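Continued from yesterday's entry.
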Amino acid sequence: MAKERQLFFCKECGYESPKWMGQCPGCKAWNTFADAPKTVKGKPGTGRYGTFTLGGERPKPARITDIETVGEERESTGIGELDRVLGGGIVKGSLTLVGGDPGIGKSTLLLQMCRNLSSSGNNVLYVSGEESLRQIKMRADRIGDFLTNMLLLSETSLDIVEGYMTDGCEFAGGETTVPDIVVIDSIQTIYKEDVDAAPGSVSQVRECTSSILRIAKQRGISVFIVGHVTKEGVVAGPRMLEHMVDTVLYFEGDNVASYRMLRAVKNRFGSTNELGVFEMKGSGLEEVLNPSEYMLQGKPEGEAGSTVTCALEGTRPIMVEIQALVCQTSFNYPKRTAVGIDFNRVTLLMAVIEKRLGVRMADYDAYVNIAGGLKIGEPSTDLAVVAAVLSSFRGRAVDDKMLILGEVGLVGEVRGVSMIAKRVHEAAKMGYTSCIIPKANVAQIENPPIRCLGISNIRELGEVI
């Protein structure tokens, strides 16, 4: 009998090799190779990697001109912030991966979603491999009342879960029907019996997700799976797991703070730039409808080193406070610290200030922080960072009702930013009376609601600060 061939694959990029390697030739990552599970042979279209057609029938290719495009069937979750991130609601037959740190609120959010979906007439199956039924019920009692068309299942065997997804469950009224929504918490606890690996291993996670994806497409079941994250902040398991699913959501936030941020890093049915903001309370997660007001709570008045800018998360403008502290250094090398903003960006802006404005920053330590814990990646906050640093250095406070926007280049020029009108109107809604914006953006605002001062170089900030 021929010897079975052993196969290894990279957990990061999926590169396959007949032997184990220390470094992946594809993505150059170290110690990422794992052994692939033995394949199970079967009839074409009915095996582990069977097609999305029912009954294992051979699919026939169709002419693209004969295919009719219809509107996507979306089901509202009853949570506006979650619908925003999903692109308008749940698409039928979609597979969504929800990741986040332990205790961040993933299970709570999905349980609230299940409560709303069951109240709107959907049959919901909640599968937990980490908690008993009593533990789930204790958390559910804090959220609210549930209907009888939501079923709980404490199980780790995927074969049993697949049986309920294909054969159906007994929901309200005693009828056996296929669930509309399935939540699996978490994918690292589910195992497949014909895969020779421990639950949570790379092989098990990949094989279980592949089987769940196939059933979701066959039956039109919308499935949510919870994934644990590693210390680097990415979902544990093979990197291809994020490529297999339709949507990847990440739950962010600090365990000691009450706010939570929900981001979509992949979405086949909507934008990946949207952000959902929640506040953790005793009764569960509550939507934050006005994030700008929430982020500016507790802002000091008349203090040097504090400025306000407006960041754009998807289509939503969010006003945030940028704080800077500049003090004399006691060492030969000044210290730089950045929280909520790219450290390299802050270092770059320090060099621009020193070169273009003649301020000797090499003798001072600089600490920059975005109050509230929000992480900003866009360059439109550059001018506000420069203004906060100069304000702290000179000991002069910026007007509390002034918004500062703009991207700063290496020669000190102030470049335009996108969607300037939406940002300025958000500032006007929050009661701000003036703003400093790039000169190139002034003409783009028709009938500005507040006074707009356009500047083209950071040297012009000296007239204000």
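--- second protein ---
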Amino acid sequence: MQVRARLDDKILYMELSGEIDQHNAARTRQAVDQYADHYCANAEKAVFDLQNVSFMDSTGIGFLIGRYKKFTRYGIPVYIANPSTATNRILQMSGIYTLIPKL
């Protein structure tokens, strides 16, 4: 799993690529949390770009909910962008879009 982040016009974009499962969720969580701590003072919105996520299981849902809670503590709304068809199906079934809207 790779995580890249950039701040553009007060929007923190986090591009995830690879698999989000129990084997790499801790490393991914640590990377995203470091970006959040670094950029949140200047961000007004956070967007998880999931275009290059090839696999996600329930651990990935937990990861996203945890990051949602973290950004909420900063007062920053969170969004999901560009999920693949398979990832979108899992996210829809989980009901996560009621917490984290899809752009």
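The chain has a mean pLDDT of 94. Residues 58-73 form the longest helix (16 residues). Will compare against the first tomorrow.
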